[in-house]
Amino acid sequence: MAKLETEDLKDIQGIVMSGYGDLHCASYVLLQVIEPAAARRWLGSIMDQITTSEPPAEKVSALNVALTCRGLEKLGLDDDTLGTFSRPFLEGMTTLHRARILGDADENAPENWVWGGNEDAEGKPDDGSAVDILLMMFTENEDMLKALLAETSFQFKQNGVVELRTLTAGRNDDSHEHFGFADGMGQPAIEGTFQEDKAAARNVLKAGEMLLGYINDYDKPADSPMVSAARDPKPHLAPPRVAPRVATGARTNLHDLGLNGTYLVFRQLAQNVALFRHFVDEATRGLDGQLDLSASDRLAAKCVGRWQNGAPLVLSPDADDPAFKDADDFGYRDSDAHGFKCPIGSHVRRSNPRDTLGPDGPTALKTANRHRILRRGRSYGHRPKDPRIADPIDRGLLFICLNSDIERQFEFCQQTWINNPVFGGLDGEVDPLIGNISKTETSPANSDNGDAERDTIFTIQADPLRTRVHNLERFVTVKGGAYFFLPSVRALRYLASL
Amino acid sequence: MKQTILTFVAKVNPERVSDLNALLDRIAADVEGNALIPFPKLKLLHFGSLVLNDDPSYGTDLVFENNFDGPLGPYLDDLYAHASAGLHSIYSCCLDYPAANAADKAAMLAYLRAHVVHPNAYHIGNVGRSVERTHQEDDLRDGIEDFLDDVVSQGNIGSPSSIRQKVQAFVQSQPPFAWAANAQPRQTAIEHFMPRLNLVIAGLIALVLLPLLIPLAIIWVIMLRWIETHEPPPADLEVDDHVRFLVKREDRTHMVQNQMCHITIVKPGVFRRVTLRGLLWVINLIARTSDKGELSGIPSIHFAHWALIDKGRRLLFFSNFDGSWENYLDDFIDKASNGLTGIWSNTVDYPKTRFLILDGSRDGSRFKEWARDKQVYTNVWYSAYKQLTVQTVDNNSSIREGLITSMDDSATRAWLRRF
Question: How many CB atoms lie within 10 A of CB B14?
Answer without folding.
Answer: 11
